Amino acid sequence: MTLFSAASFALPPALPKLAGVDFKPPQGSRVVLPNGMIVYLMKDNTLPVVHMTAFIRTGKLNDPVEKIGLGEMTAGLLKDGGTLKYKPEEIDKTLEFLAASVETSMGIEEARANMTTLKKDLDAVLDIYADVLMNPAFATDKVKLKRDETLELIRRRNDDPGRAVVREALRAFYGPAHPYGWRSEEATVNAVTIEDMKAYHANYYKPNNVILAVAGDFASEEEMLAKLKAKFGAWPRGEVKFPVIPPVEIKAGRQIFHVEKDSSQAYIVMLQKGIKRHDPVEYPLSVTTEMLGGGLSSRLAAEIRSRKGLAYTVYAYSAKKPDYGYTLAYCGTKPETYSQALSEMLRQFKLITEEAAPAEEVTRARDSIVNSFVFRFPTPFELLSERASFEYYGYKADYLDNYVENIARTDPAAVLAASRRLFKPDEAMLFVIGNSKKFDKPLSEFGPVTELKED
Amino acid sequence: MKSLALLPLLLLCCAPLYAAGGQKDELPPGASIEKDPKYPPVVAYTLKNGLKLLILEKTFVPTVSFTLMFKAGNVDGQQGKTGLAHLMEHMAFKGTKTINSANYAKEKIALEKVEKAAQAMIAEESAAAPDLKKVEELRKALAAAEKEADALIVKDEYWKLYNTLGESGMNAMTSTDYTGYVVSLPSNRLEAWMVIESDRFKNPVLREFYRERNVVMEERRMGEADPNRTMWETLVSNAFVAHPYQNPTIGWMDDLKRLTRTDAEAFFKAFYVPNNATLAVVGDVRPTEVIKLAEKYFGGWQNRPLPARAYTREPAQKSEKVVSVFFKAKPALRMGFHNPGMDNPEIYPLIMACEVLSNGKTGRFYKTLVEGKELALYAEAYPSFPGNRYPSLTVIAAAPKAPHTVEELDAALLAEVETLKKEPPTRWELDKILNNYEAEMIKQLESNSGLGMNLAQNEQILGDWKYDWRIGEELRKVTPEQISAAAAKYLTRENRTVVFLKEPLK
């Protein structure tokens, strides 16, 4: 693949002629172990370090509704709760003395387990990593500690309204009972038992449900593969049961939510129904959101920040999901100017559905994505993690290699078509946290408002 | 090691990371390549105008990271003009006489009108009893002048150029100590970067100043809504009574309201000179080519003598300061102890003390306070805040876990510090810290932009790009008794300021 650059708008005459960016990301090897575990491998001897990351197919969206937080607590305790072979204290002492790390986490749609070690300590650290994935013990005192920490974080979730607003807006958008929008609560965290976590681990953490990416300083791929087989080879394959995720239902028509808070800024989130993953409209949509809210020269930043001086933070992006994702626009501004900022956000989304964008602007957004594509894999490990991630999310094997060409096909007509299909600003959901006594206009001028309490 | 942006001391035996750089091309006279295998093979070169270059050739992907670092921070703004260094940083994205401008000769006149109108407005706003009607009229006059100037602007052209070039991580950062400009590009954009950036710092035009000032005021308001920023600002403004480290880098709102373009231009003229800057270039580039192009494009950048920078030294603190901030968020605390500064050898045992206290789950704070007594959600210690140029604060940041209070947590943290004074760390604790330091250094070499930032900052602010490697050797020499002694000397009640964040009284 060649990343080409068309320097399409008038560059200053002093600037040298721009060549394309020619970089073909290496493939790396992909091996499937007999127990079904998929392994991506790439040797990289530049530094005496080895990195691994495992994608385990689950996520917060698989939690039972009465035990939201189960997945996250399970993932958080895989290492912290000790294993069959290692006590928790032994793991901490060994890893910290060797300056190695084993970290496990739970995202909405993926569970991860990462490992980093100096080459010289690979065997010792890999042994811990494998036991953490396969044989966690969930020590009682560590479970209590994790639960207490989780509850404390729940108590603190509204400390910074600029962050809370995104979570709460998505919760209102998908509904508090849908896994795309829900959050854990004191009661759901307290309902999680050690038996629940053991059962959760037993169901999802199976080799046939794992993709592992490994890169770093080893002698050969064969040697590394032999080590992995020695550690993970006896991990038995098994059936994984996935819950049925209810379909996304998004109310039609304008909805507005407001949380009263005496804060120095008002925080605005605007949400519109997005796309399902693998919808080919993702390419023109990426170019479109880049134009609208991708950087400081994007339409939202140019108008709301640079021209009007109303905000420091203002952006937009689109998120894909198995079911409908969303397009989100965000702005933080003083309450006395919130309506100016909000009106401009709405106006920009409307404008892009009404008039074809200038070709120059579309090309620049395209170039921006194409010419910076190379930064998605600054190291072999990051490249391999991307490849593993694309397989995890069900993309075709050549997705990454064809990405640039697909983006490059986007023209003004495609941007207009994507915008018309996906943006309906009149129906966008608006979520605002702020001091309404200082608002320059009542929020109700934008539509019917539902008042919510911060909780 | 989280505490400092430290690079490790380690034999860089791993040749493939670095291309054959120095061997292939002959370096020009005056350039030197680091040959000691303890350090990466950085090529150093200084232009006649004083601009220092640090170049490290690294390959895998064809990219390059640039860091241009000025020793020009918030401390260098005068009292009454806090926030000026940071606002100037924002203005450096607004173009030059040729970039972002449709016709600079005409625009210059329009910008002078804007400045005159703005100064008139600020004068009235700052009056003892401002005439509100007059302020409104002057505001309208400023808006009208700005509208005229806008007609001569090519909007956001500087950003658009970099979008087309394929930038990644284009940004800038201002601290109490410095202002740094960073961007990464595909490596065949080397010359394009030189063309644009030399123009950017030779011929800047601070257009759209008063709107950008509003953007910065919003940035300040964002911080005021954030409990963490509020606590840090309260800590430094109470801990320092005389030294400019007391001022927030974002600036006090009242100062922001009175900053003018003329102020920013004066700041630029004083501190944005090549003899006050270091440029680090890390990535898939040939050092000889970088030097050749830097000579071509930056060679004509005029140097100037720097103003004297003797700021009021902070007097010794004689009494403990306890400050309560009432804020709608769950409780937390920040405490600071005046330290001797990064150029004083007593900082080394203090750095080690911080690590003994809070390095990982085997650190003392975690073991006793987060886990053992379950008093804390987190508790961390850092050797130097908010800066490294002058004596600063060694700080502890922590939050209690309900139902415990900040007072209980404070007492427990101090008890842990007392224990450190009496019980020197074990060899295991120290070896763990040193191992982490070495490993961190290796891992930092993975990132071009991170390494570039480090090299430039250490060279320009601390005087030596090898600073982190050297400090590593110093840390190795520190004895357990020295760590306890440093804790006993510096981490005392009369030398500390503590900020409690509490929920408002009902």
Task: Explain what this protein looks like in three dimensions.
The complex is a heterodimer of chains A (455) and B (506). Chain A has helices at residues 70-80, 88-97, 122-134, 140-155, 161-174, 186-190, 194-204, 221-232, 282-293, 299-307, 338-354, 359-371, 380-392, 399-408, 412-422; strands at 29-32, 38-43, 49-56, 101-106, 111-118, 210-216, 255-260, 266-273, 314-319, 326-333, 429-434, 449-452. In chain A, β1 (29-32) and β2 form a beta hairpin. In chain A, 39% of the residues lie in helices and 17% in strands. In chain A, strands 1-2-6-3-5-4 form a six-stranded mixed sheet, with helices on both faces. In chain A, strands 9-10-8-11-7-12 form a six-stranded mixed sheet, with helices on both faces. In chain A, α9 (282-293) crosses α12, α10 packs antiparallel against α11 (338-354) and α11 packs across α15 (412-422). Chain A is built from 15 helices and twelve strands. Chain B is built from 18 helices and twelve strands. Chain B is globular and about 70 Å long. By secondary structure, chain B is α+β, with helices and mostly antiparallel strands. In chain B, the strands form two sheets. A seven-stranded mixed sheet of chain B has the order 1-2-3-7-4-6-5, with helices on both faces. The model of chain B is unreliable at 1-16 (pLDDT under 50). Among the domains of chain B are: 102-152; 321-502, 2-Layer Sandwich (Cytochrome Bc1 Complex, Chain A, domain 1). Chain B has helices spanning 21-24, 84-91, 104-125, 132-150, 157-165, 190-202, 209-224, 227-239, 253-256, 261-271, 287-298, 347-358, 364-372, 406-422, 427-444, 448-462, 467-477, 480-490, and strands spanning 32-33, 43-46, 52-57, 63-70, 168-174, 179-186, 277-283, 321-326, 332-338, 376-385, 393-400, 496-502. In chain B, 44% of the residues lie in helices and 16% in strands. Chains A and B meet through α2, α4, α10 and α12 of A and α5, β5, α6, α7 and α15 of B.
Shape category of chain A: globular
Strand content of chain A: 15-25%
Percentage of β-strand residues of chain B: 15-25%
Find the CATH superfamily of the largest domain in chain A: Metalloenzyme, LuxS/M16 peptidase-like
Supply Rg of chain B.
25 Å
Mean of pLDDT of chain B: 94
Q: What's the CATH class label of the domain at 321-502 in chain B? A: Alpha Beta
Taking the sheet with the most strands of chain A, its summary is:
6 strands, mixed
Spatial ordering of strands, largest sheet of chain A: 1-2-6-3-5-4
CATH topology (fold) name of the largest domain in chain A: Cytochrome Bc1 Complex, Chain A, domain 1
Number of helices of chain B: 18
Oligomer: heterodimer
Structural class, from secondary structure content of chain B? Answer: alpha+beta
Low-confidence stretches of chain B: 1-16
How would a textbook summarize the main sheet of chain B? 7 strands, mixed
